[in-house]
Structure formats: structure tokens, C-alpha cells
Amino acid sequence: MCCCGSTKMSTYVRTYKLRTYKLKLWTYNYTISDSAENVTTCIIMWDESKSGCDANQMAPGILKWAEALRESEQEITIWSDNCPSQDHYLHGCNMLLNIWIITTLCIYVQSVSSIQMDVVNQWNFLDFDLPYHFDYADIRPENTLFTGLEITDDRIFLAMPRLRAGVPATLAAIPRNTHKGSSPVLRAYPDWSFHGSSRGEVNCSGIISVYRMRLDSCNKLWVLDSGVMTSLDDFTRVCQPKLIVIDLFTDQIVRTIYLPNGVLRPASLMTNLVIDESIQGRCDSAFVYMSDTAAPGIVVYDGIRDQAWRFTHPTMFPDPNFSDYNINGEAFTLMDGVVGISHSPKLGVVYYQPLATDRIFSIPTATLSKGPPGEFERLPIQFVGKKSSQGLGLSLNLLDETLYFSPLTETSVASWNPLTNQQKLLAYDPEKLQFPSELRWKSDGYLWLLSTKFQKFFLRNVSPHEVNLRIIRIPLRGRSKSAVTNNLFI
């Protein structure tokens, strides 16, 4: 979507601050508001080498221009590089020393008071209900964050992969009905006997390291165990990757499916899954599509034939041009392949995205479910669209086919509907929406998500004195009318 043309409104400045990017790319983020409390956040980027000015030189000009908006009612013209016929200039750039604008990304956001985003639970560090014999010296809260979320009527399930040492339990549950914004204690699931690997007691019949899990229509939780310890440090595979199926009525494991070596690679890291009950049956008869992030590919499990096979395509690999991330001024590098994955039974496709890319792709479920690909088979991969920045989670609204995603740089949650091409910005919050690791649409009318400040955990500068981890839900009923159009998806 283009944010082209002009708008006349009485304005005043709310906030503005400097953000620094690599490769001499600088960003100013300023917010203006009109009398109707419609907020516009604009991110201005320029190339230092082409403008001849560094960030410190540009600061006075930008602030002077922003301050001028307080005093006058004037026409604000916003130009977007999504409109090729237009020059890349923002009205008033003469006050900015005629800098050469690479792009302007304008996110039209509702005022904070009108954006409803419920913080269900939040933690500085995760707290576990530890057994009495547990050695507290084995716990490293600064290494423990969640990446997986599943919600039932009475419980919320969380997955905490063993990215580094000191994670007490890799799968846990908390009550769903807790006080809003509370920090409940996590209980290991199904119980502590399955999580001995945190204490060096490796038992491959237990649960080693889980990134995500999914609920089927028979109230069974499918848990994808990567079998890999300390994946961010020395990447130690201690057990075969497996699917663990748990009956939530009894909290008992009813099935364990070990993935065969033929579908794995030495660097395989199984991180995400979707359950397809639309082709050949429900529950035990379903297909399961799993993402392999470190040895990029999609692994398929057939519940009826009890067989698995693998698909690989260049679109599942990370793009080196998108391996650098910047979240609120904190930069890091991570070359992760396919991880975000979602399924549309109605359209018969699986959407997927590597972490290190700005693109979303799809592949037909008919292709995935028919069996192993031929040696030279051309996969019918479709390019779905281009995002404003990298993202991790994908989720689909099964009622209207809306696809939800979360651009990391923009600390926002947005949506796109492939049937109507309608785009919406659902939420924007530079503090609460840092690195959403999971998005989950639920039929209760909410989009749930995990916000993690992963960059701080990754860079080892996470603070115990601030909120780092949140479970958030965004109400969707009526949001299609109240949400504003975004240009985060091209």
C-alpha cells in the first residue's frame, strides 16, 4: 500500500528519537498527531555517504522541522518509495539540508488510548515451581525465554527451548484465568520427570528442547522436540527429534514419533509445526508439516502411513542480506531459515517464511501430502508478498483467511488478506512488541502473541529489573473496521 498524497491537519510533536543502523544507514523516528488523536509515526532513512551528513549533523535540522509543526497548521506531504513515479522527498526536507531520502515508511497508528492490547501475563524473568530436590545452581534465568504458545480453555502452554544452559523445563503450563498482567509460576509439563536434561540427566524418552507445540481437534497436544541442547552456543544433539502427543484430558503421553534419519540433516533444528486435518482425517490420521530452521526445509509426517519425507527449496533458506536485525537500537546477526509456518485448509496452502528474509511464500498442501518429492521435481512455490522487515511468527484466521505477521524492526503486528488484498495495522508498541516469537489466532476472537526481547537475551544484556517477557492478546472483533491501513506488506 502507498501512503501517497497529502493531508492537511493541525499537528504537534509527541516524540522523536534517533536510531542507528549498520552500513551508515540512519533512522529518525518521530511521531506527530492531529487534533483528532490520529497518530502518524514516520521513519526517515537516508544514506550518509550520499547526503554528506552524519546523524549528529542531521539532528538539529530534523528537530527544528519537527518543532515547527507544533506552531502551524500546514499541509504535510508524505512520499513513499512504493510509488515509483514520485521523488523520495518529504515536504519540508529543505529544512533538513536537502538530504537524499532513500525511503519513508509511514505507519498510520491509532492513538494509544484507542489501541487495545491486553497484557495477559508478564515477567522480568520466568519463575518455575521447582521440586524440592532441584539444585538452584543449575538455573540460569537470563537464558530462559519462551518461543511457543498454545491456549486451551483452562491452561496456557509455553515452550522454552534450551538455547543455552540453565533452562529448568522446556515445556510448562500456567492457568489461563490469572490476574491481568500477573507473573504466575510455571509448572513443568507433563511433570518434572520429563525434564531431567536440565540437570545433565539426558533421557531420550523425556523432553529435551521444545520450540513449539500445537493442539489438534481431539484435545491432544503435539509437541515437537528438537533433541538439541544449547543451540545458540555449541549446538549439541543429544537425542533424535521426535513428535510427542499428549492427551490433555489425562495429561498422559499417548504416542511418540521419532523422525527418521532420512529426513534429517546433521544441522537439523526442528522448530515449528502445523497440523493438517483437512486431507485424510483428524487427530492421529493428520498430516504434520514441520520447519527445519538450521538445515532449511519442511518435513512432512503422514499419520496414516506413519511415514515422513522432506522438501527443500531455496526460498526456505536465509537471505544473507537480511541476517542483520535492529530492534530499538540493538543490533545482532542471525542466519535462520524457515521458521514461521501457517496453514490454510480452505486455500490448501502452507505459508512459510525464513527468519532472515523480508518475504513470505506458500506451497500447496497437495504437494506436501502426496509423498516424497521426485529427484528433479519443480516445487510449485508461490511468492506471497514482501514485508517491511524480517519476522518470526505467522498465524492464519481460519474464519476469513487473514494472515497475521509481525515485522521486527517496526515492533508492530499487521495483517493481510489474500482474498481481498486488505491490509491492516493491528498494534504498534516499541516496548511491548519487541521480537514477537509466536502469533496464535484463536476462535475466541483474539490474536495471542509472545513478546520476548530476544535481542537482549541473545546479546547477554537482559536486565532483571524490567519486564522482558509478555503474553499479549489483541481483540479482533470489529478490528477490521477500526484498524488502520498499513504499508508493511507489498
From TrEMBL:
Pfam families: MRJP. Belongs to the major royal jelly protein family. The keyword Transmembrane helix does not apply. GO terms for cellular component: extracellular region. Keywords: Secreted, Signal. It comes from Psylliodes chrysocephalus. It comes from the Eukaryota. This is Uncharacterized protein. It is found in: Secreted. The keyword Secreted applies. SUPFAM superfamilies: NHL repeat. InterPro entries: 6-blade_b-propeller_TolB-like, MRJP/yellow-related.
